[in-house]
């Protein structure tokens, strides 16, 4: 019988690491799962949205490779595109996570927020399993 394990939430792993990396780099961009309710592109710094796009590859019971998408939101296309590249580069060089960029689609504009520019990248994160506590504690 294979051991009972669970894998960590990739969004929960990514947000604090990326927040620290961007702050160390000197960026005032914010990072979260989803968008802040009151984010204003004209008043607030660029925002990096972190989204888990599924886990297509698992080597049970040890490793999973979830896909995580970063979407940078901002009022102007150049800083948005630049920041998504910087974020991916910082993650790829990090010793706290194993991130491998996979897909870098062209920049776009958000149809639900008139004038907001978007740039995204999807990468593969390597996560290690954790034993599942049979007592639930």
Write a concise synopsis of the structure shown.
With 137 residues, the protein is an alpha+beta fold. It is built from two helices and ten strands. Strands 2, 3, 4, 5, 6, 7, 8 and 9 form an eight-stranded mixed β-sheet that branches. The protein has a two-stranded antiparallel sheet with strand order 1-10.
How would you describe this structure to a colleague?
The protein is α+β, with helices and mostly antiparallel strands and 137 residues long. The protein has one domain (5-131): STM4215-like (2-Layer Sandwich), CATH 3.30.2000. The protein has helices spanning 10-25, 77-93; strands at residues 5-6, 30-33, 47-52, 58-59, 63-64, 67-74, 98-103, 108-109, 117-128, 130-131. The strands form 2 sheets. Strands 2, 3, 4, 5, 6, 7, 8 and 9 form an 8-stranded mixed β-sheet that branches. Strands 1-10 form a two-stranded antiparallel sheet. A hairpin with a 7-residue loop joins strand 8 and strand 9 (117-128). The longest helix is centred in the middle third of the chain and has 17 residues, at 77-93. The two termini are 22 Å apart.
């Amino acid at each position: 019988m294979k051991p009972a394990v669970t894998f960590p939430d990739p969004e929960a792993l990514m947000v604090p690491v990326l927040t620290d990396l961007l702050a160390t780099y000197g960026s005032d961009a914010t990072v979260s799962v989803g968008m802040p309710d009151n984010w204003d592109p004209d008043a607030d710094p660029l925002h990096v949205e972190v989204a888990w796009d599924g886990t297509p590859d698992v080597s049970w019971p040890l490793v999973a490779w979830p896909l995580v998408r970063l979407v940078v939101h901002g009022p102007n296309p150049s800083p948005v595109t630049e920041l998504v590249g910087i974020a991916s580069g910082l993650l790829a060089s990090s010793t706290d996570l194993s991130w491998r960029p996979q897909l870098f689609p062209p920049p776009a504009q958000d149809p639900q927020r008139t004038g907001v520019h978007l740039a995204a990248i999807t990468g593969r994160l390597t996560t290690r399993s954790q034993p599942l506590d049979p007592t639930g504690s």
